[in-house]
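[Structure tokenization] protein backbone as discrete codes
[Encoding] learned vocabulary of local backbone shapes
[Protein] chain in single-letter code, fold in tokens
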Amino acid sequence: MALQIEWTRLRDWNGSQANAFEELCCQLAAAEHAPAGSRFERKGTPDSGVEGYWVLPTGEERGWQAKFFTELGTSQWSQIDKSVDAALKGHPRLRRYVICLPLNLPDARIARRQSLKDKWDARVAKWERWAAKLSMCVSFEFWGTHHIFQRLSREEHVGRLYFWFNAEFLHPAWFKEQVQRALKDAGDRYTPGANVTLPLIDCFDALGRTAAFTKRWEDLCSAAGKQIRSYTSAAKDNEGRSVLDSVTRAVQPVFDVLLFDAHGPTHIPRSGLEHGCESAKKVVFDRISDLHSKRRETHPGSTYTTTDEYSSELSALDRLATAIAEIGWFLEGDAIHLANTPALLLVGEAGTGKTHLFCHVAKQRVDARLPTVLILAEKMCASEPWSQMTQILGLTCQKPTELLGALNAAGEAAGARALLFIDALNEGE
């Protein structure tokens, strides 16, 4: 289906259409097919000529650059040249580079007149020479209006199309307004200020892949890394250095998970990481046992002090074992499961505070500008639920894929999953 949508209808994001265009192109790039084991990285500012890029299992990279140029003159070409130059120098493993522009390349083929397509081809030839001088082979591709809307016309992107081009903008203020309406409808089931901190609260951070979830993961890995470095100075013989190598190899996959976008769809290999932690702990405990045996042989019948030749390494090993164990406990908990499978059914007797909890978390999230929808099922009747949800929210989207896709696009733009709360599901028709 041909899409006749003008770029003037692209909504602002972070203050401009240019930022919106950049985010839209990166969302489409992240949805492109890539080999199993690849990861997509979204870059901030400065971006080294690349807004986002795929890293393939081979280490090769595919990069995207977006420029919201409605025309291509000398100044615009110069800016694109600078981005290409920065990308080639900053990403030596780049093999494919896509430049996104909100226009097409007319190719009139009039004698003695260079078309925009001719100018693009000439530029590509120049960029290929630049790459060759750096011993790189890079293919340069163009995504224009046709290429972008061709992707947006697919069913998988229908919600993204709705989010970026529909007049009903699911911006942070919109989410906050609809949550505030739900809080008002909840009545005395929600009492602001009457909150008790529960471990369950952390589950919603994992469910939404929020910055708090990412920081918890990073802190655990940082603590383990610190203890590995501490043990490096304590391991003074070949056996100790062998332990260090074994532990590092076992926990490295845990650290590598941080290379993935914590807010994206990447699956965290829970069982594999747990196995790595268990292997590392076994190596550490075996070394502790070995050192205690040596200590007994060296000092038979002695009362051990903190100053003998084994104390420093044993102390470092104890701290290392604790740091690895804390990662293991985190992996065994609900957080990783919810991060991988973003669905939660909360059950409990009437009056135990389920509605209050949902309201509290929803309010916290919208205050933090995280996309959140709170639906009270009592507002719904015995008919198809999706149309009722869109009506309650005051939206005009016609299909579930539009609603869910729009929420997903809002989450991607916010850097965290959007959460949809449905309270008292059993009370609805």
